[in-house]
Amino acid sequence: TRWSFSSKKTTCKRSLQANSFWRKETILISRTERKREISLCKTGRFTRSERVKRSEEIRNLFKNGERITIHGAKLFLIPNNLEKNRIAFALPRNFGNAVERNRCKRLSREAYRKLKAHIKKGFDMIFLVYPGSDSYQKRCAMFYTLVQKAGILEG
């Protein structure tokens, strides 16, 4: 088999999606048979400085943080006196295999990234997700409901 390489630059579908950085998107969040529409804009990358990484900070969040619970997820939060929010994503020990865990974390990060422009600043958070049916719309609805119950949603 011969391989031919060309110097012509090609663009894939994924890079075209990344170029539509400021494109407005609408997410339908359904809860108890009614639908709300939220217009969200892409908010860029989920950077390292926005993550809770140190184990003592994570332990402190689990121990002393305020707990907000809905079916399938929990949110632990505590004020951090910073100009930005920091977040970690956690799963219980019995959560499927590595592929399922990684997919769950990817969906959770994306749901947070889409909603982070609408969340009040100055909190450390842990988003804990339990096993169940995963979809992007359900994850967005879960995260929106938790943030709303916590009272940290702007507007």
Describe this structure in words.
The structure is a single chain. With 155 residues, the chain is α+β, with helices and mostly antiparallel strands. Helix content is 32%, strand content 26%. Strand 3 (66-70) and strand 4 (73-79) form a beta hairpin. The longest helix is centred in the last third of the chain and has 18 residues, at 98-115. It is globular. The termini are far apart.
What topology emerges from the helices and strands here?
Layout: H1 13-19, E1 24-31, E2 34-41, H2 55-64, E3 66-70, E4 73-79, E5 86-90, H3 98-115, E6 123-129, H4 136-150
Parallel strand pairs: 5-6
Antiparallel strand pairs: 1-2, 3-4, 4-6
Helix pairs in contact: 3-4
- Report, as a whole number of angstroms, the end-to-end distance: 60 Å
Strand fraction equals: 25-35%
User: How much helicity do the residues have?
Assistant: 25-40%
Q: Biggest β-sheet, characterized?
A: 4 strands, mixed
Strand ordering within the main sheet: 3-4-6-5
Rg, alpha carbons:
18 Å
Q: How do the helices and strands follow one another from N- to C-terminus?
A: HEEHEEEHEH
Number of helices: 4
What is the overall pLDDT average? 78
Task: Describe the structure concisely.
The protein has 155 residues and is an alpha+beta fold.
List keywords for this structure.
two-stranded antiparallel ribbon; about 160 residues; alpha+beta
